[in-house]
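Journal club side-thread
Mid-discussion, someone asked how the predicted structure for our own chain would compare to the paper's figures. Pasting it here so we can look after the session.
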Amino acid sequence: MLAGYWRYTYQIVSIWNDYYYLDINDVEESTSSPGEYNIFGTDEYGGLVVAGYDPTYGNYSLYDSGSIIDLFYVYDFSGGGVVSGCYYQIDNSDGSWSRCYAMTGILLSLTKNAATAKSAIQSSQNEKESEAKQEVNDLESQDITAKSNKIDPSVRESYKRLKAIYSDR
């Protein structure tokens, strides 16, 4: 079950935590793939996100659009209220992808009321995106194998699918 208030944690150089609320009351069936559902919610700054299960590739994913980078998570459930998989950064200036950074997610609460949402202004989100992008750039500039052509095509397709759903909203 994707609904609820989640904390996703991953490490580039620093350890990062991103918070998402996926609203059980905001689920829509896909218009292109009957039987496939997507759930909408918000990030810690109040921005729209979309998540879902991709039966073609057998993975769950979450798309979080940013002004500097997009955040994209691909994962599976590893237990009740726990997910694990990959965090990717997609650079909005040139479309390049970071490598997979291991991530875990923990369901903190089923309701938004019980969640302690962070309040932040837009500039804080941009600062966070800039810092995360810089860490990836610094780390991956030293690692030739981290180039975006190493991304599994199924991950790219899941990203395109959720980004299109997000854009249609």
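Post-session note: The helical segments are 122-140, 153-168.
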